[in-house]
Amino acid sequence: MSSLRSITLATLAKDIRLEWRSKDAINSMLFFSLLVVVIFSFSFDPNAEESRQIAGGLIWVAFLFAAIVALNQTWARELRNQVLDAYRVSPAPANALFMAKVLGNFILVSLLEALMAPLFMIFYNLRALGPAWQLIPVALLGTWALVVNGTFFAAMSLRTRSREIMLPLLLFPISIPAVQSMVEATRIILTGDGAARFWIVLLLTYDVVFTTACLALFETVLQAE
Amino acid sequence: MKRAFPILAILTALLLAYAFYEAMWVAPMERTMGDVQRIFYYHVPSAWTAFLLFFVNLIASVIYLIRRNAKADAIAVVSAEVGVVFCTVVLVTGPIWARPVWGIWWTWDIRLTTTLVLWLIYVSYLVLRRFSDSSQTPKLAAVLAIFGALDVPLVYFSIWFFRTQHPQPVIGGGGSIDPRMLHVLLLNWLAFSCFALLVCWARYRLELLEREVEDAQSLESLVGDNRLGVKRPGEHSLPLKTNLPLDKNTSRTGTQ
User: Fold this and answer.
1) Interatomic CA distance for residues A121 and A114, integer angstroms
2) Helix (H, G, I), strand (E, B), or coil: what is residue B30?
3) Domain positions in chain A
4) Exposure string (b/e) for B50-86, b if CB count within 10 Å is 16 or more?
5) Which one of A93, B83, B99, B179 has the minimum C-beta count within 10 Å?
């Protein structure tokens, strides 16, 4: 157990250090989601009431697209110099590597959301009419839902031709219930009509189900060569 | 076994023809919807067949992951492909019926949406199989099939929260159906299941043959000379007489 944790932490620290020095992923994600925000605001131009209705969808679609950028480069880094092959033959547990990658992506995407959310609020004149603190569990659970499956499918698409396009093709259909829950919960909290509890519970269920499935099947995917 | 195939084919053709006759002329006309309702005899059996095939795909995928049995994987491919075809029939016939009856082509109702998401998941399954050319494709595809199966109940619950517009299922859903209609429906389902089985069978044999050819080709490229007589696409057979096991590149330059 302790080796699992130490390997996870070591890989996570390595990834964060690499990202901190290059800032490749976070910069491209930030700029990409900024572009999405601007393009959406040109194409809809809503008033305050309408934007409350649609903002949940816009925010999460922007984050979903931006997360693809981070997810695609997760494993690509390990392919250079055959790092992944070295990992495969080492006795280190596969799930330690997986958890490190998921946590790394989770931190990255959460950081992006924390930086972009205020910008969304400004551009769309948003003010939550419901309990705004509930946006935090929605964001955390929703990000986890995207990132855990995204990291898993990115590992799967490593073995395919044109893997950059393969990831969204695999990830989006499976993510439909999660995205719907995030969007609905955010809309309910922003407009203040009804309770978002059902959607938060559904997101939690989604997270538990797919985290378990990923941990159970990741070794099979990693060993696939 | 091979002799059973034409027998099944003839039987299926007869059944489909008879079921068509029953659905178009024998089944009574529905009181409020009129003749449009007859699409129901194609819509519902296709849906049942598609769901059955997706279920077969899941079982075959799980068996493949446990046993690593190549035949289970072939069954998984075949059932996914044929299932997507039947699911497409469902998604096309549904709106044709919905337009005159509901006045709209599509609504984000629980059954429609779940079927659509199921279709999307299996299309992505087929895309994965097409784009991945390593020998590990079956493993990855089986994993994706399990993820898809886990996803479907969640999709169902997420939409269940909204109001549902689709008519309640007529069998076991508390609705009432004329016994003559039920008879025609079940007859059509039988015909469609036979048809699905027939197509799956043909596709399964094709899949096994394709794999044999692939194995032979990879063996040939390993051995170097064209001992098995397999032609690469675009390659003219200028027989290169050699006793040395050449590697792929040397053999290519030698023949061109």
Assistant:
1) 12
2) strand
3) 2-223
4) bbbbbebbbbbbbbbbeeeeeebbbbbbbbbbbbbeb
5) B179
Query: Closest partner residue to A220 among B65, B137, B158, by Cβ?
Result: B65
* Structural domain count, chain B: 1
Per-residue confidence band for A37, with pLDDT thresholds at 50, 70 and 90? confident
B236 is a domain residue: no
CA–CA min distance B150, chain A (Å) = 8
* C-alpha–C-alpha distance, residues A123 and A102, integer Å: 31
Q: How many CA atoms lie within 13 A of B116 on its CB side?
A: 15
* Residue A177 to residue B132, Cβ atoms within 8 A: no
Indicate whether B237 pLDDT > 70.
Answer: no
State how far the Cα of A209 lies from the Cα of B146, in Å rounded to an integer.
12
Q: How many residues does chain A have?
A: 225
pLDDT of residue B250: 43
- CA distances to A47, B21, B144, B255 from A44, in Å: 9, 52, 36, 62
Interchain contact B116–A (C-beta under 8 A): no
* ipTM entry: 0.84
Listed by number, the residues of chain B in 134-153 with a beta carbon closer than 8 Å to a beta carbon of chain A are 134, 136-137, 139-140, 143-144, 146-148, 150-151
What's the mean per-residue pLDDT of chain A?
87
Cα distance from N-terminal residue to C-terminal residue, chain A: 27
Residue A114: which pLDDT band, with cuts at 50, 70 and 90?
very high
Domain contains B247? no
How much is the average pLDDT of A200-219? 93
Domain residue limits at B32: 4-223
What pTM did the predictor assign? 0.82
Tens of pLDDT, residues A64-94: 999 998 898 888 888 888 888 888 888 888 8
Question: Is residue B255 a part of any domain in this protein?
Answer: no
The minimum CA-CA distance between A132 and chain B, rounded to whole Å, is 22
Q: Which amino acid is at B242?
A: T
What does the alpha-carbon distance between residue B10 and residue A212 come to, in Å, rounded to a whole number? 48
Is position B252 within any domain? no
